[in-house]
Amino acid sequence: MDNAIKEGAGKRRLIVLTGPTAVGKGTVEAKLREDHPQVWVSVSATTRDPRPGEVNGVTYWFMTEEEFARKQREGMFLETAVVHNMAHYGTPLEPVMEHLEAGVPTILEIDLQGARRVRERAAELGLEVLYVFLAPPSFDELVKRLIGRGTENEEQRRRRLETAKVELAAENEFDVTIVNNTVEQAAADLWNVIAEEYGIR
Predict the structure, then answer these.
(1) SS3 152
(2) I need a labelling partner for 181 at 20 to 30 A (CA). Which of 6, 125, 142, 152 fits?
(3) Tens of pLDDT along the chain (201 residues)?
(4) Domain count for the chain
(5) pTM of the model
């Protein structure tokens, strides 16, 4: 795909959703899609092996290292990252552009570093992006939610909370902040942002 946005594209900005660990990005996104199925959420590519129940093209696009590297060389990703020094992850550019050009509300849910990489790449492409930050009601509430998940041990929680402090400090890099007091309200607030951006009544 050409590293240039087609004429007429960019009138509807890509929505990039970011927030600190344990803030509930995935849960809010799932509620948004349940209430507004016309929203399209980008599916990432990865070189890791599929886990039980994961579906190619739905959960992730599963690729070999060679295929991923070729696509990366050809500029076919909006952003890429190496996670845990093991697997590659990336956001395929073409489907994002196709949905934007068709006027479909398009969202990319990603971490802070990924959002920063999108910002750099979008500048190269001339792609317009609206950056949305999902924030917790308070840091204490974030700690409570992280502990409540019960999916990490104490050391893992400590590392995640240190990361969360860095992520929270980056809120001023974003265009819009939505506070996740409740999943229902946060999803509704996110929809209001999307509806305004895409001219949906």
Answers:
(1) coil
(2) 152
(3) 333 333 333 358 999 999 998 899 989 999 999 999 999 999 999 999 998 999 999 999 999 999 999 999 999 999 999 876 789 999 999 999 999 999 999 999 998 989 999 999 999 999 999 999 999 999 999 989 888 777 778 888 888 899 899 999 999 999 999 999 999 999 999 999 999 999 997
(4) 1
(5) 0.86
- For residue 134, being part of any structural domain is answered with yes
Is 107 within 8 Å of 41 (Cβ atoms)? yes
Q: CA dist 51 to 6, 41, 45, 151, Å? A: 37, 20, 14, 17
Please give the residue range of the domain that contains residue 124: 14-42+103-198
Tokens representing 192?
Answer: 């209001």
